[in-house]
Automatic annotation (TrEMBL):
UniProt domain MTTase N-terminal: residue ranges: 26-136
Note on cofactor: Binds 2 [4Fe-4S] clusters. One cluster is coordinated with 3 cysteines and an exchangeable S-adenosyl-L-methionine.
GO molecular function: 4 iron, 4 sulfur cluster binding; aspartic acid methylthiotransferase activity; metal ion binding; protein methylthiotransferase activity
Enzyme Commission no: 2.8.4.4
NCBIfam families: 30S ribosomal protein S12 methylthiotransferase RimO, MiaB/RimO family radical SAM methylthiotransferase
Protein name, UniProt field: Ribosomal protein uS12 methylthiotransferase RimO
GO biological-process terms attached to the record: tRNA modification
Cofactor: [4Fe-4S] cluster
Positions with a binding annotation for [4Fe-4S] cluster 2: 167, 171, 174
Length: 454
């Protein structure tokens, strides 16, 4: 499972949150755990608080109270959230909890009875009420009534763009629909207005996220409002017109997803799709309550590549799902051999309180899950290494993320921040700045990363 980036912790986030507080200004800290969707929630909460006159602290000691935005997707994520709450209580003492784990307030208060308040996911008003109760606002009418720009917890040159909340699927291993509800899409014109403001502010890459990106707009019956249609193909085309890189995450492989591929081939959006396939054997997919269409998926992948040969496909898989036999796991390995996905992650199945998969028979022993995870990742790593080696000697575009004394850390169009690889430039990088998009020649490749020169 992907760990939370350490630089999203308030005690390590000095590069992201400027300290511009005035004397006597109430100050809030933020610990943001979990997925990019939760990160967008954290940014939204901090933006609202700053508009009300609060300063944002980059450390525990400088905050009058700390908000911990939690993750509750897996038991390991719940444990991490409880640890973060405990750390915030120890370092600061005044803690407000929100996020997915907030849907289980008794679970939190049972472990940490001293938290000031617990609210659920995307309950922005309740979070603000809790902050007001703990740290009353003291706005300066000459400063704080001015419109506030958004608080960003990511570098200035890229930003996550959330287009919907919730999910209509009923996968047996997942409790996100129980925590975040059914699909609720934002109006397309509102998404576009936010995207336009981000690009105007200097954002060079928009990372489109939701729980089910390809279902965007189905709850709105694909309505057209203010010149924008609430459908993922139309939205992608509109976003592509802004001139920034547009990267799609969490794309469920519905048939209409094939309409996105020509937009990638034409360069309107990045040739990249993050698709949670989860498994390949039809019986496992059936036990997961996901469509059992592994063979048709291979045909769809081949069709996508015929239109856009440069497309990068990323996915995640569950190994050791209840009832998974060695033969079913071998089918997954064979499928991966044929699919040749570019970016692959996996996690070992674990029970989640409230998930229907807990009650399935024939849970896989821990040592078998570990063995299958190791074998799966060994194959995925070999595929990644071969694909990256084939790029040596080619010229590609990259976006610069960071600069230090040793070089520039960049990403290709096939690499999303935090979860994929990097391209490193260690000579002639002195004139670069974060957010630059430059063309490089690839000199060297490893299993997951590249090196090159301008």
């Amino acid at each position: 499972m992907q760990q939370n980036p350490p630089d999203l912790r308030p005690d390590l986030a000095r590069a992201r949150i400027p300290d511009e507080r005035r004397d006597g200004q109430p100050t809030i800290g933020m610990v943001s755990l979990g997925c990019p969707k939760a990160l967008v929630d954290s940014e939204r909460i901090l933006t609202r608080l700053r508009a009300e006159g609060y300063a944002i602290s980059a450390d525990y000691q400088g905050a009058d109270a700390v908000i911990v935005n939690t993750c509750g997707f897996l038991d390991s994520a719940k444990a991490e959230s409880l640890d973060a709450i405990g750390e915030a209580l120890q370092e600061n003492g005044r803690v407000i909890v929100t996020g997915c784990l907030g849907a289980e307030p008794d679970y939190i208060t049972g472990a940490h009875p001293k938290v000031l308040a617990v609210t659920g996911p995307h309950q922005y008003e309740q979070v603000l009420d809790a902050v007001h109760g703990a740290v009353p606002p003291r706005p300066d009418p000459f400063v704080d009534l001015l419109p506030a720009s958004g608080v960003s917890l990511t570098p200035r040159h890229y930003s996550y763009l959330k287009i919907s909340e919730g999910c209509n699927h009923k996968c047996k291993f997942c409790i996100i629909p129980d925590m975040r509800g059914r699909l609720v899409s934002r109006p397309a014109h509102a998404v576009m207005r936010e995207a336009e403001k981000l690009v105007e502010a200097g954002v060079k890459e928009l990372l489109v996220i939701s729980q089910d990106t390809s279902a965007y707009g189905v709850d709105r019956k694909y309505e057209t409002e203010r010149g924008h249609r609430a459908h993922i193909t139309d939205l992608a085309r509109d976003l592509g017109s802004l001139g920034a890189w547009v990267r799609l995450h969490y794309v469920y492989p519905y048939p209409h997803v094939r309409d996105l591929i020509p937009l990638m081939a034409d360069g309107l959006i990045l040739p990249y799709m993050d698709i949670p396939f989860q498994h390949a054997h039809p019986d496992v997919l059936k036990r997961m309550a996901r469509p059992a269409a592994g063979a048709r998926t291979l045909e769809e992948i081949a069709a996508w590549r015929s239109v856009c040969p440069d497309i990068t496909l990323r996915s995640t898989f569950i190994v050791g799902y209840p009832g998974e036999t060695e033969a079913e796991f071998q089918t997954l390995l064979d499928w991966l051999d044929e699919a040749q996905l570019d970016r692959v992650g996996a996690f070992q199945y674990e029970n989640v309180a409230g998930a229907r998969a807990n009650d399935l028979p024939d849970h896989v022993p821990a040592e078998v899950k570990q063995d299958r995870f190791d074998r799966f990742m060994e194959k995925a790593q070999a595929i990644s290494a071969a694909k990256l080696q084939a790029k040596v000697g080619t010229q590609i575009e990259v976006i610069v993320d960071e600069i230090d004394d040793e070089g520039a850390t960049c990403r290709t169009k096939g690499d999303a921040p935090e979860i994929d690889g990097n391209l490193f430039i260690d000579t002639g990088f002195e004139s670069l700045t974060p957010g630059d998009i430059v063309r490089v020649t690839v000199d060297e490749a490893s299993d997951y990363d590249l090196w090159g020169h301008m």
